[in-house]
Write a structure and sequence with these properties.
Elements lengths: L1 E4 L4 H12 L4 E5 L16 E5 L5 H7 L5 E4 L11 H22 L2 E5 L28 H18 L4 E6 L1 E3 L9 H8 L4 E2 L3 E6 H12 L6 E5 L2 E4 H12 L6 E2 L2 H18 L7 H6 L9 H7 L6 H12 L2
Parallel strand pairs: 1-2, 1-4, 2-3, 4-5, 5-6, 6-10, 7-9, 8-12
Antiparallel strand pairs: 9-11
Helix pairs in contact: 1-6, 3-4, 5-7, 7-11
């Protein structure tokens, strides 16, 4: 039997949807306070939902009864500095608990990490699975939490765990709404004036889920895979989003200096209002960095043809315009 953690989230719900459409009966964990996603409500006869906090070892052990395969999608995702320490602690502990139980029960694991855990390449080079994040110089709590969670999986692999790791780039899709990566689309629709000089990889959520299922059904273990369809600079990306919304694209370049003013201004506004800052130092810096990824390893492993990013952008804009 299959278990999916984080199935109420953007990626986890898409993975569960694909498993359900394939006719699988499986189990999904969720927090007691979480709601079942709308896209999964019609599959209640084949999905066994259980309330299990991954920090509760006893609840997790109960959820893993009779399980032979686990897709670990659950994670706390935040770029806010205020969340840094608790996020790192939570993500690592949850993964460690899962790894330990999977080892004990000889369960195969597909673990969702992130390209944030891989780090940067030299200027002009593509980032590959062989690059590594420099923890001594990294200030992004999410990146640190994903790398150290990966280290728990690597520990398990060294001790006999059958596991594979996926490192998706920025995951986009129509069901994201206006949260997560969907925030960018909503910001452009609301009249974004500036673009930054950075770039990153982007991939449709459907392709990430497909890749995970394909890897689970191989005998591959002890490998990590970048899952990314295309690299786009932010000027190109925001212009295409604006075009699909039928509005003017951002026309002013926001360099590192302007982004520095932006996060400092947001921090001051947050201090005065008591609200979370719209942008912080880490996210401002990330918007100006070039991060382009090599997806040849995952293509070779499972033969996937990625959905063009332009098609996904159009689907997202059409749904947000309804």
């Amino acid at each position: 039997m299959i278990l999916v953690t984080g199935a109420t989230g953007f990626l986890g719900s898409e993975l569960a949807l694909q498993l359900a459409k394939q006719g699988n009966r499986f189990r999904c964990t969720k927090r007691e306070s979480s709601s079942i996603p709308a896209i999964l409500r019609s599959f209640e006869t084949i999905i066994d939902w259980v309330d299990a906090d991954l920090l509760d070892i006893f609840a997790l052990e109960e959820a893993l009864k009779d399980i032979s395969q686990v897709y670990h999608c659950a994670a706390w995702v935040s770029l806010r500095q205020a969340d840094k320490k608790p996020m790192i602690k939570t993500n690592i502990a949850a993964t460690a608990n899962l790894v330990n139980l999977c080892m004990q029960q000889k369960i195969r694991l597909v673990h969702v990490s992130s390209v944030a855990a891989i780090g940067l390449a030299k200027p002009g080079d593509l980032v590959t699975e062989n690059h590594n994040l420099d923890l001594d110089r990294e200030d992004d709590g999410y990146a640190i939490s994903k790398l150290e969670s990966e280290m728990e999986v690597w520990r398990g692999i060294a001790e006999g765990l059958h596991a594979v790791i996926v490192n998706p780039s920025i995951i986009i899709g129509a069901n994201a709404g206006i949260k997560g990566s969907g925030q960018l689309f909503e910001t452009v629709r609301n009249g974004l004036k500036f673009y930054t000089s950075g770039s990153c990889g982007f991939v449709d959520v459907e392709d990430v889920a497909k890749s995970m299922i394909a890897l689970m059904n191989t005998k591959i273990s002890g490998e990590r895979y970048i899952v990314s369809a295309e690299n786009r600079n932010y000027k190109q990306l925001t212009s295409e989003i604006a075009e699909d919304f039928g509005i003017k694209p951002p026309a002013m370049h926001a360099g590192a200096l302007m982004m520095g003013f932006a996060w400092r201004g947001a921090a001051l506004a947050a201090l005065l209002t008591g609200r979370a800052p719209a942008i912080d130092k880490v996210s401002a810096r990330a918007a100006t960095i070039t991060r382009d990824y090599d997806n040849s390893k995952i293509k070779k492993a499972i033969g996937i043809d990625f959905k063009p990013v332009s098609i996904t952008i159009k689907e997202i804009c059409e749904k947000l315009n309804r």
